Amino acid sequence: MQRIFDSLSVYVHPRVLVMLFLGFSAGLPYVLIFGTLGVWLREAGVERSAVTYFSWAALGYSFKFVWAPLVDKLPLPLLEPWMGKRRSWLLLSQLMVISAMLWIAMSDPASTEGLRYMAYAAVFLGFSSATQDIVIDAYRIEAVKETLQALMSASYVAGYRIGILVAGAGALYLAAGLGTTPEAYVYSSWQITYVAMAGTMLVGVITTLMIEEPHSNSESSFLKSTSDYLRLLLLFACVVSALVFAYVGLAESIAGLRIGLEGLGVGASLASFSAEASRLLAVLGFAAVTSWVLVVLNIADDRALQETYVDPIAEFFGRYGRMAVLVLLLIGFYRV
Predict the structure, then answer these.
(1) Is the same domain home to 194 and 276?
(2) Which of 7, 98, 135, 283 has its CA 20 to 30 A from that of 268?
(3) How far apart are CA 232 and CA 240, in angstroms?
(4) CATH number, domain with residue 107
(5) Is residue 220 part of a domain?
(6) What is the pLDDT of residues 52-102, one digit of tens each?
(7) What is the pLDDT of residue 221?
């Protein structure tokens, strides 16, 4: 009996419970962007072709690896001395998520202007939520020993699923209870619903304020002064700008490639996948060239670039060897 009690006691370990609440705050925004928001837009009479533009919000999740090193290395001037690196970034990202939810709540998609503002807010929410995910992952790894990592992940997933239920079924039930229906759209119902969802994010904020800062191993050998951090920030801004520029600029070319592949007898799904894969490779290549140019011009520090972006990738392939390819394929296809 004592063994059973000892086995179950690890599930109420303080750090494991913390991951339950942080998982909850991570699950909320995802469904509010890609599920509940779509129902709101359809009730507001927004055309399906316009709804697809909200898929831009997914770019935050798709390309979060670009600014993950920035979040890992860059200290927040006012918050870090008070809270530490992980907690300060976590609090900032959660406040950004709440702000984005309130921005969405204040935008009525029934009007053209309101729809445009809502699209901006959705992209901002995607970026903020992805940033929160980055910090939560870092906290999970650093907060406990390796023996508790499986429990931390399980607790996070459980909280994430609860957040999905609240932001999905819970939000829809609340909106319907406030009077909106597919036949009779009521903006105030959805407005109150998203304000309420922003309120539930306080679970994550309170958790962040109560937890202790974990011991971090991310101290840089080359980022010491304010100018070093500013150069890293400039590098990040240039790389992101290059990614966005290339992604948008290649849209017509990729559409032509997809049509050309279909004309050669390639199936529509395979043609679309091949075209988008080519687009991704081209975008990453353009970003790599941009980084190289910044180093050549001495705008970016090659040692900081190596430590921030190259070394983690090299360490991953060095650790897993040939298995690294299978791991990447699993990550790339598990949602398909």
Answers:
(1) no
(2) 283
(3) 12
(4) 1.20.1250.20
(5) no
(6) 667 777 777 877 877 788 888 778 888 888 888 889 999 999 999 999 999
(7) 57
pLDDT score for 102: 96
Could you say which of 210, 234, 258 is where a domain stops? 210
If asked whether residues 230 and 194 sit together in one domain, one would say: no
**Per-residue pLDDT, 164:** 93
CB 308 within 8 A of CB 73: yes
Closest CA to 277 of 45, 285, 46, 309: 285
**pLDDT digit string, tens, across residues 164-204:** 999 999 999 999 988 888 888 888 899 999 999 999 999 99
Domain end position, chosen among 160, 179, 210: 210
Can you tell me whether residue 29 is helix, strand or coil? helix
- Give the chain's domain count: 2
**CA–CA distance, 23 with 35 (Å, rounded to integer):** 18
Give the distance, in angstroms, between the CA of residue 319 and the centroid of all CA atoms in the same chain: 25
Instruction: Compute the CA torsion angle 102, 88, 15, 65 (nearest 10 deg).
Output: 80
Question: Could you give the CA distance from residue 154 to residue 143 in angstroms, rounded to a whole number?
Answer: 15
